[in-house]
Design goal:
With 192 residues, this protein is an all-alpha fold. The chain contains eight helices and no strands.
Length: 192
Amino acid sequence: MKAFWLSFVPLFVAVDAIGVLPMFMSLSQGIDPRRVRRVVIQSVITALAVALLFMAVGTALLHLLGITLSDFMIAGGILLFVISMSDLLSHDKSQRRVDPDSLGAVPLGVPLLAGPALLTTSVLLTKVHGFPVTIIAVAVNILLAGVLFRFAGFLQRILGKTGEKIVSKIASLLLAAYAVMMVRRGVELFFL
């Protein structure tokens, strides 16, 4: 149980469903509610498929390219730090119109839910806590994102625009701290 929570928390921060929620609401605005349900299902299935595929072949791909775990940790940490800083310093996540038929797959499923943060974190957690625990933690986090998207209208009324921004910034700050920890551990691993 402890391994699950040690996997769940960093993945929760990496998925950043609360931070993605304002973009989801913006992109799905004006779309028929039945179609929005399909968008949510499509985003969950796409993100889960991409994350599981990367977890399955990511390590082999890294080995094939001659990339060590410490290399990946440092690069992933730097990338996560840049992403978190971008989110922290921006006023709003970019808003753009996309085709409602592919909205769930791109950009919601990939790269917003199953983006660099989730892929990097899931591969690293697989090494630390094992494949089964990490799969469950990834699946639970992506399903939670789907539930959050499904009740987006209700949550928007509760949080308000200011509340959404505050929660998003706190999640980005946690992601930045996690990124620094990844770089530190990658450097430590490199010198061991």
